[in-house]
Design goal:
The complex is a heterotrimer of chains A (217), B (843) and C (139). With 843 residues, chain B is mostly helical. Chain B contains 25 helices and 4 strands. The N and C termini of chain C lie far apart (60 Å). Classes of the chains: A alpha+beta (217), B mainly alpha (843), C mainly alpha (139). At the A-B interface, helix 1, helix 2, helix 3 and strand 9 of A face helix 3, helix 10, helix 11, helix 12 and helix 13 of B.
Chain lengths: 217, 843, 139
């Protein structure tokens, strides 16, 4: 059995490709935001302590046009950078990718594995995933809206009745990671957590063998 | 160029002035004793409104404290999960619907007329009605938690949780109660838009209006287009809850995502409707303490209008994790980034103003500085969550909670508190304490940051929203405890603030007139203020008349401008043109009346009874409410004056009665119907949303309403519309026989049209519980019929008015506004029939 | 002020509609792009198919919108300059704030505000087109 190590700072301790990319983006954006905040505060402080020299109105207008131009450029760069990540996050995976059907119940998670060339089986509130491989989750709900989120591995996706959303995650480190329901779904919402246990590939295959032997339908 | 009149060269004699003031006092003073509550004067209603909003703020804040106590330690049992759901739902809903929107209405009712040198808003009884509706709805909703039946779906109430999994009355209370309050918000918006456009002092051209007025105009227009989608969505959700119509039930063709679209079409502009009027207060305060006119007036107008438009293109960014295609995410990311430009520009204008001027330190500026610091944090984190890829991690976590509180507290709460310190003298002639203000500020500012800065990390560490507890050992305990301590600090800050506001203040705290030496018109007020508002309506030559126009205050006080008197003892105000504020009408406005309270009570019944499934009492209440409204209109509106015109001074004579596109009533009808049409368009959006979802829509297996009945209904309705237009013409040509016959025939045609529109779905046996297609078709038909029915009431009203001699060819406000209404009905019925009958033919 | 400018600045010929025309063009472009994209992706069989024609269409429509916005901005600029009226600069060359109570200044203000709103609308349209740089399909 693996040690039950529940990591802290989940989304910012990435253990998956998607989480890694988002965490990097977060740190860049935070650095930029901090610089801008300090800059604006410094400008405001300076403005409050001094008086514009010479043609005051023109000086004042410079602050405004400068601010508008600066914002437009920075925001455009942020837009393009952020969106450049999107196609990879939403990309299609090869057909033989491990597929897990996630059924969100009130208030627990039923995971239905459909591994290639093996009979399907189910687990409850416990996911086991191989490291270094993509996994495609098909999200199903026949009750209310939930959201499936393993912060250490990647972003979340809503589980909506009437639709089947698909989420792809690429774990890159082994360990046990906490997953939660991230859309208010009723009184059990806070307790609807699950575990994602990422193991080396051969350990995973052994586990699949065991599940097949144990004959879980 | 217009030759603007100068003030009278000499003041009138003392006896004349005293007689004028006595007459003004008699016309404007409020009634005594219990009759005080029948007052409709904006200065009084504004105070009630603001006080009530403050109470709701405290209530919402207490709910937040309860939440922070529960979350202070893991596994806490202070609140049960069920109670916690009620608390967080009410906290969000109360803050958004009973504080953040009404505070802008309350402050505007209280101060907007004074900022524009006007005595009143154009529809005082509508403001009073709005207040009573707000009181009734608000108490109903807040009271629910004391009976353990508060709504529990979160402030955005997503179905299917709220449609099929919450059988109590909480969700119904939310849907019906807040719809009632939203109606009163739309009424306020109508009043403010008409007020800003039509009720300015002469000479206050559009480029001289106070910036607060620009912002309130934009926010008012935004309300017209943002609130109706929520009202439409609430209608759909309540119909599903009460009658099982499957709008959000995927099993019968519905889709929960439609609610999210309609809600956020409201919800995103809503936050800007909250923010813009608050930043408007900053725009009024900063020039005073910088001792210079605002720098970048046109940039601020750009900000207000630009934000207003762009904010309607953002709503899907609340739905980034619902599985929408990447191209949609990209489009909405683009708009979400773009809106940050105008948002930031106005902040740079304030900084520029401070740079150009010489800043005087003061408590209002302290709160504004704190607000700026906080708001910029929120704006930056907002720009971060607008990036779709990051949003996948941050959505629905405490990171978003931190972001939204930063912008709301920095952008609304701090400016409102700054305005409280700044404008307090206008309320009762006293000043607040600088020492207490400083203490309150630091407690609030530090408390805020202690709570919300760590919360960004709480969210990214995996704590979702709306969880009543969290386990120990995953790194959330310390951050949550710190956040809760910050809440206690902030509560102390609010305590100090409330003490400062409500403590008894002796003569030491009396405020001099214009204590901050400001330049804008609201500071004409005496300390304490007189009930007539402004002593005479001034001629304006500048954005800051108190700074720029010599002896301005003295001239206003001596009655050297317009309308210094109330010769007939009536309350009067000036209506002017939109662009250049040329005087157009002397408008007589109503005095105190209890009808507004009574109408609000019975209209409230229409929304409150169905919560408990009491439909017959609801109908009875509706009938009585209708009676009240008709009584109100009959006795208080479109009154034929005793003379045609009145002299208002400086040789200007104005009509007392104006109908058609120059009149304020016509504008009010136009604006209200734009909101109504937006609600209808939201229903149409629903129809086509379902079409995009299903390959087969309308489904081949379900019979539609056919063509014959709908088209018959359309033709009859168009006939009624045409006859109404003709009836107006016959009325103005004084051809009574033709008028009565035509209007009577219009009523009959409208009745038949209503029957025919309902007959279509009924004859086809469309069952609205079976599938969403019959449900949406029935709803389109019923919506049209309800509008036809209201149109019939209006037509009968016109017949009665003419018959009773209260309407004639010259005095035709009633039929002029009713005809305008009927134009909108015609558009609605044409669209509804085209969709119900015509669209299936295309498939 | 010449007779023509006096006529042009007269109140009867003014309205606030010009002010909001550029943002309305942005709104129309945005709304139509979103609706077309939603319907396209909603009805497509394979969400991984290329949407290049959709993107081109949106960008072309965006360029047309920019032309319209530019046209309105130009009208606003001419109002702001107000040919034949007194220049918006004062004696030492600094820009005078047009905040006097004259029809002239009101005209200039409406023109300047139109120019600003057109610039913002243009930037917003450009952002929309930029956002499509990386989108390739309906996933």
């Amino acid at each position: 059995m693996l040690a039950r190590h529940l990591p802290i700072i989940a989304a910012l301790s990435p253990a998956g490709i998607e989480a890694r990319r988002t965490a990097d983006l977060f740190w860049w954006m935070t650095a930029g935001a901090a610089i801008i905040w300090v800059g604006v505060m410094a400008l405001a402080y300076f403005a409050s302590k001094t008086r514009a020299p010479g043609d005051r109105t023109r000086q004042g207008n410079r602050i405004i046009t400068g601010g508008a131009a600066f914002s437009s450029v920075v925001l455009a760069i942020l837009l393009i950078t952020g969106l450049s990540m999107l196609p990879d996050l939403l990309a299609v995976v090869p057909a033989n990718t491990l597929r897990i059907h996630v059924h969100a119940e009130q208030w627990w998670w039923r995971f239905q594995y459909a591994p290639p060339n093996r009979p399907p089986f189910e687990t409850a509130n416990e996911l086991r995933l191989p490291v270094g491989e993509p996994v495609e989750f098909w999200l199903h709900s026949n009750n209310v809206i939930h959201a499936f989120w393993i912060p250490s591995l990647g972003g979340k996706l809503d589980v909506m009745p009437g639709r089947v959303n698909r989420l792809v995650l690429h774990p890159t480190q082994t360990g046990t990671f906490r997953g939660v329901c991230a859309e208010f779904c009723g009184i059990g919402h806070a307790n609807m957590a699950f575990q994602a246990i990422v193991v080396p590939k051969d350990t995973f295959r052994q586990w699949l063998d065991k599940m097949e032997r144990d004959g879980e339908p | 160029m217009i030759d603007d009149p100068k003030p009278l060269a000499e003041a009138p004699s003392l006896e004349v002035r005293q007689a004028q003031e006595a007459r003004l006092l008699k016309a404007w003073s409020q009634p005594r004793g219990w009759r005080y509550w029948s007052e409709v004067n904006n200065s009084i209603v504004g105070i009630w409104y603001t006080a009530l909003v403050l109470l709701f703020l405290l209530f919402g804040g207490a709910l937040a404290l309860l939440m922070r106590i529960q979350l202070a330690v893991p596994g806490n049992t202070f609140l049960s999960p069920g109670m916690y759901s009620q608390v967080f739902t009410l906290h969000g809903s109360v803050m958004m619907f009973l504080f953040a929107i009404p505070i802008f209405e309350a402050v505007s009712i209280l101060f907007l007329p004074q900022m524009m040198g006007a005595r009143e808003l154009p529809f005082p009884r509508l403001s009073a009605f709005g207040f009573w509706a707000f009181l009734i709805g608000g108490v109903f909703l807040c009271g629910s938690i004391f009976f353990n039946v508060a709504p529990t779906g979160g402030w955005f109430m997503y179905p299917p949780l709220t449609s099929r999994y919450q059988p109590g009355i909480g969700a119904d209370m939310w849907l019906l109660g807040f719809s009632f309050i939203e109606v009163s918000a739309i009424a306020a918006a109508v009043e403010l838009i008409v007020g800003v456009l039509k009720c300015r002092p002469p000479g206050m051209r559009i480029h001289l209006i106070p910036l607060y007025a620009w912002y309130v105009l934009v926010a008012g227009v935004m309300v017209l287009f943002a609130f109706p989608p929520l009202i439409a969505g609430s209608m759909l959700l309540e119909l599903e809850r009460a009658f099982n119509w499957p709008f959000f039930d995927a099993a019968r063709g519905g889709d929960p995502l439609l609610w999210q679209h309609l809600f956020w079409l409201f919800g995103h502009p809503e936050v800007y409707i909250i923010f813009l009027p608050s930043v408007a207060l900053v725009a009024m305060i900063v020039p005073t303490f910088a001792r210079t006119p605002i720098v970048g007036y046109k940039w601020i107008v750009l900000s207000a209008i630009g934000t207003g438009f762009l904010s309607f293109g953002l709503w899907v960014h609340h739905m980034f994790t619902t599985g929408l295609p990447g191209i949609t995410l990209a489009l909405f990311s683009a708009a979400s980034q773009a809106v940050a430009i105008p948002t930031g520009v106005q902040l740079f204008c304030f900084i520029a103003t401070v740079y150009v001027g010489r800043l005087r330190p003061s408590i209002p500026m302290l709160f504004i500085a704190g607000g700026l610091a906080t708001f910029v944090i929120g704006g930056l984190t907002g720009v971060m969550v607008a990036v779709a890829s990051f949003n996948f991690q941050a959505h629905d976590t405490h990171f978003v909670v931190a972001h939204l509180h930063s912008v709301l507290i920095g952008g609304t709460i701090f400016p409102v508190i700054a305005a409280a310190y700044y404008y307090f003298p206008l309320v009762n002639g006293k000043l607040l304490s600088e020492r207490l203000g400083r203490v309150a500020f630091w407690l609030l500012f530090c408390g805020f940051n202690i709570t919300f800065l760590p919360m960004h990390f709480t969210g990214l560490r995996g704590m979702p929203r709306r969880v009543y507890t969290y386990p120990a050992g995953i790194g959330l305990e310390e951050l949550n405890l710190v956040s809760s301590i910050g809440a206690a600090v902030r509560a102390a800050g609010f305590g100090v603030l409330m003490w400062d506001v409500f403590r008894p203040k002796g003569k030491k705290w009396d405020s001099p007139r214009n204590p901050w030496e400001a330049g804008s018109l609201e500071w004409l007020q005496d300390m304490p203020g007189k009930p007539w508002g402004v002593r005479s309506i001034p001629e304006i030559d500048s954005r800051y008349p108190l700074w720029d126009q010599p002896n301005f205050v003295q001239h206003v006080d001596e009655g050297r401008f317009y309308m210094p008197d109330a010769e007939e003892g009536k309350r009067e105000m000036l209506v002017t043109s939109i662009i250049d504020a040329k005087p157009e009408q002397c408008l007589r406005i109503p005095g105190p009346s209890f009808i507004t309270l009574i109408a609000a009570v019975f209209l409230g019944g229409v929304f409150i009874f169905p919560t408990f499934k009491m439909y017959w009492p609801m109908a009875a209440s509706g009938v009585i409410a209708l009676g009240c409204i008709l009584y109100w209109l009959w006795h208080g509106s479109a009154l034929i004056p005793e003379k045609e015109t009145k002299a208002i001074g400086h040789g200007v004579t104005l009509p007392l009665y104006v109908s058609g596109p120059s009149s304020v009533g016509w504008w009010a009808m136009m604006i209200t119907m734009l909101a109504d049409l937006t609600a209808f368009v939201s229903l149409v959006f629903g129809y086509f949303f379902y079409w995009t979802l299903h390959k087969d829509f309308p489904p081949a297996s379900i019979a539609g309403p056919g063509v014959v009945w709908p088209v018959a209904g359309l033709l009859a309705s168009l006939g009624a519309w045409g006859l109404t237009i003709l009836a107006r013409r016959w009325n103005s040509r004084e051809q009574p026989a033709a008028f009565y016959a035509g209007m009577g025939a219009a009523v009959l045609l409208a009745a038949f049209g209503s029957y025919a529109l309902l007959a279509g779905p009924r004859q086809a046996g469309m069952n609205p519980e079976a599938h969403v297609y019959p449900a949406i078709v029935w709803l389109l038909a019923i919506w049209s019929v309800l509008h036809l029915a209201a149109g019939i009431v209006m037509q009968l009203y016109c017949i009665a008015r003419r018959f009773a001699g209260r309407m004639s060819g010259r005095y035709d406000i009633d039929i002029s506004n009713v005809t305008l209404y009927w134009h909108f009905v015609a558009i609605t019925v044409v669209a509804a029939v085209a969709i119900m009958a015509g669209f299936p033919l295309l498939r | 002020m010449t007779h023509e400018t006096q006529h042009e600045a007269a109140e009867e010929r003014q309205s606030l509609w010009l002010l909001v025309l550029s943002p309305s063009i942005w709104a129309a472009h945005f709304l139509v792009s979103y609706i077309v994209a939603a319907v396209w992706c909603g009805s497509t069989e394979n969400r991984a198919d290329s949407v290049n024609s959709l993107r081109i269409w949106i960008v072309v429509f965006g360029l047309l919108s920019l032309v319209g916005i530019g046209f309105i901005g130009k009208i606003g600029w001419r109002k702001y300059k107000l040919e034949g009226g007194s220049p918006p600069f004062d004696a030492d060359g600094g820009e005078r704030r047009f905040d006097q109570d004259t029809a002239e200044d009101r005209h200039r203000f409406l023109g300047a505000a139109t120019v600003l709103l057109s610039s913002l609308s243009a930037v917003a349209v450009v952002y929309v087109c930029l956002s499509l740089l990386f989108v390739q399909n309906c996933l």
